[in-house]
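Predict structure. Chain length: 226.
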Amino acid sequence: MKTPRHFKRWFDGWPDLVCFDLDGTLVDSVPDIAASVDAFLAEQGVALAGEDRVRGWVGLGSAKLIEQAMAWADLDPNKHEECYSRFLKHYFEHSTDKTKLYSNVKELLKAFKHQGVPVALVTNKPGIFIKPILDHFEITEHFGWFLGGDTLVEKKPSALPLLHCSEAIEAEPEKCLMIGDSITDFRAANNAGFKCALVTYGYHQGVDLASLGADAVMDDLAELLI
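Prediction complete.
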């Protein structure tokens, strides 16, 4: 397989390491996340947020998500631990009910595997949810690391999760790539000295991705193989 144009320009070959975000990059998990948010809101006897509203909240980690949902519903902030616990329980039981794998995810992962490129999963989602989702879509074997938001002492946009992976294999940051969907992923890549590719179909947190200065902004992961 010939070297894709982006990789040829950025690395003069294939990257030494690729780190993927999960939600909004590999999978559309909002339907199940929203259902779990609405489950705890229903228990609190308040209005349900709905999928469209929750879609705008995703990306900063689940604890922040519940904080945003509670603020929107005007719930007592002191109930955060209770609400967060109920959300986690519901989501753990329903994390793959309606979640979908985005197009060309498996094709890109297979290409990296064929080229011997190490791949990591770096998400702000609690680590307990990562493997069940990857197992559900039969892509677990492609990842050498699973880093959740609670795996290390810092999470994205900190550089720590990305550098944790690159240092493990002694890869130079400038030869590594972060693939995500948000300003959080961009900042993590920028802080770590990684190249950054962002997908337009994910969870943007209201930010114009084109304005960030990422190395690539794509409508489809397949663009990285051209």
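Summary: The first strand starts at residue 17 and ends at 20.
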